[in-house]
Amino acid sequence: MKARFLTATAVGAVLSATVLSASAASAQSNELTLCWAAWDPANALVELSKDFEAQSGIKMNFEFVPWPNYADRMLNELNSGGQLCDLLIGDSQWIGGGAENGHYMKLNDFFAAESISMDDFAPATVHAYSTWPKGEPNYYALPAMGDANGWFYRKDWFEREDIRAAFLEATGRELGEPQSQKELLEIAQFFQGREIDGQTVYGASIFTERGSEGITMGATGALYAWGFKYENTPGAYDMEGAVNSPEAVEALEFYKELYKTATPPGYDNAYMEQSLDAFKSGQVAMAMNWFAFFPGLAADPNVGGDKIDFFVNPGQNQPASTLGGQGISVVTYSDNIEGALDYIKWFAQPDVQKKWWSMGGYSCHVAVLNDPEFVNSAPFAADFLAAMDNVYDFWQEPAYASLLLAMQDRLHNYVVADQGTAQEALDGLIADWTEVFEDEGKL
Amino acid sequence: MTDTPIDRMARATPPHLARRVRGLSDRAIAWLFVAPTIFLLLAINIFPLIWTVRLSFTNFAANRPGREVEWVGLRNYQRILTDDGIWANMQTTAHFLIWTITLQVLIGFTLAWLINRKFKGNDLLTTLIVLPMMLSPAVVGNFWTFLYQPQIGLFNYVVELVTGTPASSFSMLGAGGLAKWSIIIVDTWMWTPFVMLICLAGLRSIPDYIYEAAEVDRASKWRQFWTITVPMVLPFLMLAVLFRGIENFKMFDMVVLLTGGGPGNETLLASIDLKREAFEKWRTGYSSAYAIILFVTVFGLASIYVKALNKVKER
Question: Which long-range contacts (CB under 8 A, 24 or more apart) does A298-302 make?
Answer without folding.
Answer: A298/A378, A298/A379, A298/A380
